[in-house]
Amino acid sequence: MNAHPWRQRLYHLVLWVVALAFFMPVLWIFLAAFKSSGELVSPNPVFLFRPTMDNIIRVVQEPNFLDYLRMSFILSIGSVVIAIAVAFLAAYSFSRYRPTGTNFIMFLLLSTRMVPAPAVVLPIFLMYTALGWAKTFHGMILFYVMFSIPFSLWILKGFLDGVSLRYDETALVNGGSRLHTMFRVVLPQVKPGLVAAFIFNIIFVWNEFLFNYILGGQGTTMIPVLLATGVKQGGMTDWSFIAAISFIYMLPLILAIYVFQRYLLVGMTFGTVRGEV
After folding, report:
1. Shortest CA distance to 215 belongs to which of 115, 132, 112, 109?
2. How many CA atoms lie within 13 A of 119 on its CB side?
3. Structural fold of domain 63-267
4. Which of 21, 89, 145, 222 has the fewest CB within 10 Å, making it most exposed?
């Protein structure tokens, strides 16, 4: 029996109110990026104003800003792509061959994401210094790959467990190699999982500050470090700078999440059940 129309409308209204409440900080940043300094720090909120591009232009002209932005894209996309490639191979092995202790191994891998970052920053810094990886590009890539693999592995294994073994058996019986089966038969079945793993991990790497600040050097600095170290101008917090750089930095991630949001919803369920062939 369908719910009463007024209940459905009330339910939708509550959803809109909750969504807008969570979106308000983002909206504030977007509006603040186009306000003058006086309007931004005014004690009375200014909702009607003439937009200005001065803040955006000032941020873009900031020394090394474009280099930091390019490094954010390179480190984020590069490390996550490598991590997903490694995680898919591992997930296929765990899903199809199920070695002894699979569940315990999966728990150990995921437990690395349960540890607070400040708790491991010192040992990782000492290890990187001893190996000569600190302030190097390959060191930062390796670090983000290491941190992205466990969660990618969990997501992809959930999807692979939902793909019937009959796909593998049919491909092998018809003369396909194991690599052909993995990449031409099974891989297309878990495309939503690949996208979900990519987006979830890109969010982590894109916004990561602590390890990039401690381990990164001049050539591997990302925008969050610039945002944290460049907020003071003349001894005061430069809110216009914060708003403008936050707007520029958030926009690519918001667009990516909007485009791939249906994959994120599927990814939250850790896989789907597919039919037999």
Report:
1. 132
2. 5
3. MetI-like fold (1.10.3720)
4. 21
